[in-house]
Design brief:
The complex is a heterodimer of chains A (500) and B (1047). Chain A is built from 13 helices and 19 strands. Chain A is an alpha+beta fold. Chain B has 46 helices and 22 strands. In chain B, helix 29 packs across helix 32 and helix 30 crosses helix 32. Classes of the chains: A alpha+beta (500), B alpha/beta (1047).
Chain lengths: 500, 1047
């Protein structure tokens, strides 16, 4: 049986996709642009923009000059490929052999598939309509060869389905660009006035080869079917998911435990094999009454330790309602990260953040009681004390900046400064005595002021003059005065932290 | 107990300081300081401005510098006397020469070599170590400095509220005791008032290429880096009062002032033991004898004597000799040059050959501008051929040496667009938003930010973050951004220049620059000479050469200017001036038939009248009416008559406006000059208004009408930004006349020279060629067997030679390849393969085929391309001579090209076509649309509705014409000038900007010879250009020039 191929061309791949996500863009002129040599160059224009004469390759500034209300959206590198892959995977329902054809097409090997849809016309209609209803403008053509299908999809003026062996006839009226040639060859053909494939198809091969190289002949022969061309099919990517159907509905905690353990072992084996670890996982139980129950865990550090993960799930098992019984368990790793290869312990005694036992302890603590939060703080590059620390999201978040040790900062910083009564000489000498929560502290030693100005781009207000003071008990405090002395209002003093 | 601020960073430490030197000095004066130092980083670029401001506010500026060394802690350096200042400059020059532009690499050893007479303050470190110690390395290096610098060194200390101030002060005090040197209090000032902190933070972000949100510790933690009141400084240093006292010790030791700098002319200008004045007298009379063929007229004699006496009195002889020196060099080398400027059009300069404007031809200008009252140095700019100016520059460097001659700097200022972009980025706006924001600035010399346009671009003007961005950008406008080099201003001295001002490497190779710009130099009384480049001089010299070769006539600027040729003036009056210097623009061309110049002085006026000054001052129409005797000529007063007589009572020149200010409003000459200058800079808005009041009131008080006074003032305002004095106009008029003369007498030569000097002027080669053909010149295409690289003249067809286009017109060719091709031509190429033997690359051959240059071999471009595509497998070396496969190839019939396709290809490859005009090919289609050929417009009546269509050549939207857009379109019969009102432009914006081929409907406006089409509707006819090609899959419109846009 002869081969049949379908070529699908997405005329406005990226702009269609954006319009699907942001329906308000429908019918509006907008472009996607990315910086190129310091200028914003348009990589795709919406149909409405194209009507107004805006095309890919133009500089945004020029386009704006003619269409002042043109909306410009920053392009993401690699987006077309990602979209094509997703669309390709979707097309696998129509044929197992799907290949992406960057930058804006798909090639389907449809040999022997079309009869399932009652022949090629119906097949063509189904696929094109389905893609169209998703919101993509597509052009699809079917032919004996990839080359001809590609050419007709993009340049064809008549029927989209080329009958068996009809390549020669169809191609001869199409322009050379339909042969997927390099730009400089196209340019040369154009200069010679060879504006259709037919005008040179019949020339002696040697004359063509001498002037245009082997590329032209290869493409021509491929399109005509004299030379075979192969597809590189898109591989489906398997998700990190394990399924466990049960012969009989599970109704006990022990049963669930066993199921979780089996699933975890299988999943962790696979993860470990791929050098990955799990940060979050969801267990779904499909009950026979048609409902689904779920339990979710998260970890502080990517791990493939089934034992540890099981302990985390074990805390959740009591909350799972089996009701009449669960017939299918699905465990899915929702967040997976690469793990550093585990070093075999030469000596025991890894400490601090490197110690996995610590991470596992934290997982258990937070898993046990959701109201218990354990936070880790990292330094942040800001002078304003409230902004000088930030909460870490994971136990092994790297610090972007070192803790500063060139000026004293309290070990305990109050989340909100609390007002204190102070008596201090003006204008900016340290306090002599202050009262905090009813207790009077005599200041014995003091240093300061350290003047910290507000981040003016965030908010406005008074600066603060901070003092480090020590009372007669030897306790040290971090006090500050808000604003300058000398105005009519009484001076406002606050306590903001305690030194160890 | 007084205090002097000794550590001040101005905005001449680019992207560090947050205030202008002037602001810092002014604030210091307001706070009661008696002196202030400015210490920019390895630079003295800001001190002259500080010095001028200090004079104005009655305090003293200590010129100083912060030395950032590569191998040690920074020091502040203060010269105690002139020699020490010279040392400092030499030191900085050394560091500058070592580095790329914008950097200065200094080492401890350099400092030790040049420390004589300088006082130093050691800049304290920002922080102490975690154990509250000074860094041990810092201490070691301080000790090392102490050893060499001895008692000239002090230890600096600052209190910037960083929390550890007391500890730091204590440690520095300890260190000072160890070194046995005193501590000095420093303010470490970055801005003059605390409010500038926000701008200074933003500048830090721009410098560090981060946003304000991520800048973190790169910013200062508080706003304490401002100039503080003296008593506050005393309070801060109350524990170490001696530190305050010591600032006075330094201030009193460093009494050097920039006033002490003296400019000395180079000595080698004279010969035979004469003094400069004697030398000048000698040369002038010698020149006069030559110029007037031994018969110097009496009145010229008197003028020369008067001028020489004046020059002697002012002691400017050396200046004239300096200019004479390099003008003579240029003349010896055959480089054309022409002087302009207030002193350039004197008889002395004519005799010295600096200018070729024959002073006998119109009233002498010299005395008027070099009056006693205006005590400013003479101003002579000399234009040279732009292609050969570098020779003159290198001559000056060579003659005086790099240590005695350098180019003046220009301080590039931050403009509105750049300010918004930089500040926007630093404030964390997205690139897209920044782009839209800068789009709110309408043009690049428009320096105010229009809040109304924000909403148009989709911003919310009430957004506080955005308002902050705008406010900061407004402050940032006018900041110095970098030191560039002046286009050609030179300072030449007798002594070492690097003892007067630090020098630095310019970005261009073989150039060295000063750190100061021309205003700074003028304030210090340094003289500069301008060596400028002018494209038209190149063109004229090339024309002279061609005339000599082909017509055997020797021409010079002066010889052409000897007599007024009525034919030339007639040509000018018909606005037949395409390619002519200055008067070729649309605005100039439409003025010519109204003005109808018939003598040299008319050209002077023509050059000056189409300028923003006279246009904004509404002087043009009154002048035209008076000239055409439609309005009586009257003068507001007798004193004004003297000034305005030559321009029929209407002030047209910058000098006239200034003179009116002096005579009628009783301005002092310096004031008049200050007024002009304050308008040239954008900032001093308040100052301008003060002048306006003074001037208008002054004139009204003396009996002039308010209307007249306002008009003169408006004109001065226009002159401010584009000053056009009579003396410049006269020099330009000379070139106008010479180029018109060439165009009239030798249109073939003129076209060739103009094409060989491209790019220059308003027009594209295509239009120059069309114009040449219209004047009866035969133009022949580029041909592989006949053309040279340049455009040449060949044969003789009647009166004229034919113009043979050269290979330079073909896009993408390399001159060397072509020279090889020409060298191998011998008795002509007959086969494509012959060309290959010269070693020309196949890519070059393809470009030649595109240009259709093989006609003399009987090949059109397509056949040639077919042949060339196969040459790479021709038998070479060992196999040469054997028959190749391609030779045995059967003939293949290629599709024939249509005329349209040929024209299209011609434009694509050479930007012009001799075969046909593109519009000609689609004329039939246009006829169906009832489009009138532009050539027929002159036969039509004023007020008739018309429809014209043509290729867009120029779009011009002058700032002076209130949003009116002028468009020139061209078809095979000529040009049409379109006028579009702003409303029409906004409606048809896209058509106007995108059309290569534009069709418009409108109303004809005929005013004598001046014909305009006032447009009502526009149509983009690019689609018709597709007709040129047999298929439609390409975009042939891209081939044509999209038209040039002018402001």
């Amino acid at each position: 049986m002869s081969k049949r191929f379908a070529a699908i061309w997405f005329r406005h791949l990226t702009t269609d996709w954006l319009t699907i996500r942001q329906p308000e863009l429908q019918g509006r002129p907008f472009v996607i642009a990315a910086p190129q040599h310091g200028r914003m160059v348009i990589s795709a224009a919406s149909p409405a923009a194209e009507v107004q004469g805006i095309n890919a390759g133009m500089v945004v500034a020029d386009a704006r000059a003619s269409v002042p209300h043109l909306q410009v959206i920053d392009g993401r590198p690699g987006l077309p490929d990602k979209l094509l892959k997703a669309l390709g995977r979707w097309c696998i329902r129509y044929t197992p052999m799907v290949a992406i054809d960057p930058p804006d097409g798909l090639i389907l090997d449809i040999s022997g598939c079309t009869h399932l849809w009652d022949g090629e016309p119906a097949y063509h209609k189904t696929v094109a309509t389905q893609l169209g209803s998703k919101g993509y403008q597509v052009r699809m053509a079917i032919a004996d060869t990839i080359g001809t299908a590609w050419a007709v999809a993009r340049f064809g003026k008549t029927a989209d389905i080329v009958k068996n062996g009809g390549q020669l006839e169809v191609l001869s009226s199409l322009p050379p660009a339909a042969l997927r040639l390099l730009p400089h060859i196209l340019q040369r053909l154009d200069k010679l006035g060879l504006r259709t494939i037919g005008s040179f198809m019949g020339m002696p091969a040697s004359a063509l080869r001498r002037r245009f190289g082997d590329g032209l002949l290869l493409r021509l022969r491929q399109a005509l079917g004299h030379e075979a061309e192969y597809l590189q099919p898109l591989q489906p990517i398997a998700p990190y998911e394990e399924r466990l159907p049960c012969l009989e509905p599970i109704r006990t905690a022990t049963g669930i435990g066993i199921a979780v353990q089996r699933l975890l072992e299988a999943l962790c084996k696979r993860l470990a094999g791929e050098g990955k670890g799990l940060r979050a996982a969801t267990l779904a139980g499909y009950r026979i009454d048609g409902k689904t129950v779920q339990a979710t865990i998260g970890t502080n550090r990517a791990t493939a330790n089934a034992g540890h993960l099981f302990r985390l799930f074990a805390l959740k098992i009591p909350q799972i309602e089996p009701a009449l019984g669960i017939e299918l368990f699905v465990l899915q790793a929702t967040k997976v990260e690469a793990t550093a290869p585990g070093q075999e312990a030469l000596w025991d005694g890894t400490q601090g953040l490197e110690d996995t036992a610590l991470a596992e302890l934290l997982d258990r603590l937070t898993g046990k009681n959701s109201s218990c939060t354990v936070n880790r703080y990292l330094p942040d590059e800001h002078y304003w004390p409230e902004r000088s620390i930030k909460r870490a999201t994971a136990i092994d978040d790297p610090t972007t900046t070192a803790w500063r040790n060139d000026r004293p900062r309290p070990t305990r910083l109050l989340a909100k400064p609390e007002p204190v009564d102070v008596s201090a000489p003006i204008p900016d000498y340290p306090p002599m005595v202050f009262r905090y929560k009813g207790v009077v502290h005599q200041v014995k030693k003091a240093d300061g002021p350290e003047r910290i100005e507000r981040p003016w781009w965030v908010d406005t207000g008074e600066h603060r003059d901070y003092y480090y003071v020590e009372d007669e008990q030897g306790q040290r405090y971090w006090l500050f005065r808000s604003g300058h002395y000398g105005d009519d209002r009484p001076q406002q003093w606050f306590i903001h932290g305690f030194f160890a | 107990m007084a205090y002097t601020e000794l550590q001040v960073t101005s905005n001449f430490s680019f992207l560090r300081g947050g205030s202008h030197p002037e602001e810092l000095v002014k604030q210091a004066a307001a706070l009661g300081y008696r002196a202030i130092a400015i210490t920019d980083r390895n630079s003295l670029a800001g001190i002259v401005r500080g010095h001028i401001a200090a004079k104005k506010y009655g305090i003293r500026l200590i010129p100083a510098c912060r030395l950032d060394l590569m191998d040690g802690p920074s020091l502040l350096a203060y010269p105690t006397n002139k020699a020490a200042y010279g040392n400092l400059c030499t030191l900085l020059t050394k560091g500058n020469f070592r580095a790329e532009k914008g950097q200065c690499l200094l080492y401890k050893q350099d400092l030790y070599d040049h420390c004589e007479g300088l006082r130093f303050i050691l800049v304290p470190p920002e922080t102490l170590t975690p154990t509250f110690e000074l860094d041990s390395k810092f201490k070691q290096q301080a000790a090392a400095y102490r050893e060499v610098l001895g008692s000239a060194m002090y230890v600096g200390a600052t209190r910037t509220y960083r929390g550890d101030d007391s500890k730091k002060l204590f440690r520095l005090h300890q260190l000072a005791q160890q070194l046995d040197r005193p501590v000095v209090a420093l303010g470490d000032v970055y801005y003059h008032v605390p409010g500038r902190r926000e701008l200074q933070d933003t500048l830090t972000c721009i410098r560090e290429k981060c946003t304000i949100h991520s800048a973190g510790f790169r910013l200062h933690q508080n706003a304490e880096r401002h100039l503080k009141p003296i008593d506050e400084m005393q309070r801060l240093f109350r524990q170490y009062p001696d530190a305050i006292v010591r600032t006075q010790e330094i201030a009193e030791a460093c009494l050097f002032s920039l006033n002490e700098l003296e400019y000395v002319y180079p000595h080698e200008l004279t010969s035979g033991g004469r003094t400069p004045q004697q030398e000048l007298v000698h040369l002038t009379w010698k020149g006069a004898e030559e110029k007037f063929d031994g018969a110097v007229p009496d009145n010229v004699r008197d003028t020369i004597a008067m001028e020489l006496a004046f020059i002697e009195k002012k002691n400017y002889a050396s200046y004239f000799l300096t200019v004479y020196d390099y003008v003579r060099f240029a003349r010896d080398r055959g480089i054309l040059c022409q002087g302009r400027g207030s002193a350039a059009n004197s008889v002395v300069c004519y005799c010295l050959g600096i200018t070729s404007v024959n002073p006998a031809k119109f009233k002498l200008l010299f005395a008027r501008f070099m009056s006693d009252a205006r005590d400013e140095p003479p101003d002579i700019d000399v234009d040279f051929e732009h292609e050969r100016r570098e020779e003159v520059i290198q001559y000056i460097y060579e003659k005086y040496g790099r240590n005695r001659a350098a180019i003046v700097a220009t301080v590039t200022q931050v403009r509105a667009k750049g300010a918004l972009r930089d500040i926007g980025k630093a404030m964390g706006l997205s690139l897209d938003a920044v782009g839209r924001l800068s789009a709110t600035i309408s043009s690049h010399w428009d320096d105010h930010i229009e809040m109304e346009r924000l909403a148009e671009q989709g911003f919310n003007p009430a957004d506080p973050h955005l308002q902050k961005v705008m406010a900061l950008a407004q402050q940032y406008i006018g900041f110095p951004r970098q030191l560039g080099q002046h286009t050609g201003g030179f300072v030449i001295t007798q002594g070492n220049l690097h003892e007067l001002c630090p020098l630095l490497n310019a970005r261009m190779e073989d150039r060295t620059c000063l750190e100061w710009n021309k205003d700074d130099l003028e304030a210090l009384g340094f003289l500069k000479v301008d060596v400028l480049g002018l494209g038209m001089l190149t063109c004229i010299r090339k024309a002279f050469d061609l005339v000599k070769t082909h017509y055997g006539r020797d021409l010079t600027l002066a010889s052409i200017n000897q007599h007024d040729d009525p034919n030339v003036y007639q040509m000018i009056s018909h606005a037949d001036t395409l390619g002519v210097f200055q008067i070729e623009s649309r605005a100039q061309m439409s003025m010519l038939p109204r003005l109808r110049p018939h003598q040299f002085y008319d050209l002077v006026i023509e050059v000056a009248i189409v300028r923003p000054g006279p246009i904004q001052g509404d002087m043009v129409h009154p002048y035209l009416r008076r000239r055409n005797k439609e309005e009586p000529i009257d003068y507001p007063s007798a004193e004004i008559k003297d000034i305005l007589e030559r321009t029929l009572g209407v002030p047209l020149f910058q000098e006239q406006a200034m003179e009116i200010a002096i005579v009628a409003a009783k301005f002092l000459p310096q004031e008049a000059d200050e007024l002009r200058r304050s308008m040239a800079t954008f900032k001093a808005k308040g100052e301008v208004n003060r002048f306006k009041e003074k001037m208008v009131n002054g004139m009204v008080k003396r009996g002039y009408t308010t209307d007249f006074a306002n008009r003169v003032f408006r004109q001065i305002q226009g002159f401010g930004s584009y000053g056009f004095p009579e003396s410049h106009a006269a020099s330009f008029a000379l070139l106008v006349y010479v180029s018109s003369w060439l165009k009239y007498h030798y249109p073939d030569v003129f076209a060739a020279a103009l094409l060989n000097s491209q790019p220059m002027g308003f027009y594209q080669p295509a239009q120059i060629v069309i114009d040449a053909r219209k004047h009866g010149v035969t133009v022949m295409p580029v041909d592989v067997n006949h053309s040279c690289w340049d455009h040449t003249l060949e044969g003789k067809f009647g009166e004229r030679h034919a113009l043979r286009l050269g290979f330079r017109q073909v896009k993408g060719l390399n001159e060397e390849d072509i020279q090889a091709l020409i060298a191998g031509r011998a008795d002509g190429y007959r086969e494509i393969t012959d060309l290959c033997h010269t070693g020309v690359q196949q890519a070059t051959l393809e470009k030649l085929a595109d240009a259709d240059v093989f006609r003399s071999m009987g090949l059109d471009r397509r056949q040639a391309m077919w042949e060339i595509a196969a040459v790479h497998d021709r038998p070479v070396a060992l196999f040469s001579g054997q028959s190749s496969e391609s030779a045995a190839e059967g003939q293949i019939q290629l599709p024939l090209m249509t005329p349209g396709e040929h024209v299209l290809q011609d434009y694509a490859s050479t930007s012009l076509s001799l075969k046909a005009h593109p519009v000609h090919i689609i004329r039939e289609k246009l006829d169906l649309l009832h489009v009138v050929p532009t050539g027929k417009l002159s036969t039509m009546q004023d007020g008739m509705p018309v429809k014209v269509c043509g290729m867009v050549t120029i779009r011009q939207r002058p700032g002076t014409a209130k949003g009116v857009l002028f468009v020139t379109i061209e078809d095979e019969t000529g040009f049409a000038n379109l006028v579009l009102w702003d409303q029409v432009f906004q409606t048809f914006r896209r058509e106007i900007l995108q059309s290569r081929l534009l069709m418009v409907t409108g109303k004809l406006q005929v005013e004598g010879e001046v014909i305009h089409v006032v447009v009502t509707r526009c149509f983009n006819m690019n689609g018709l250009l597709h007709q040129l090609k047999s298929t439609k899959d390409d975009e042939p419109t891209q081939v044509f020039h999209k038209g040039r846009n002018f402001k």
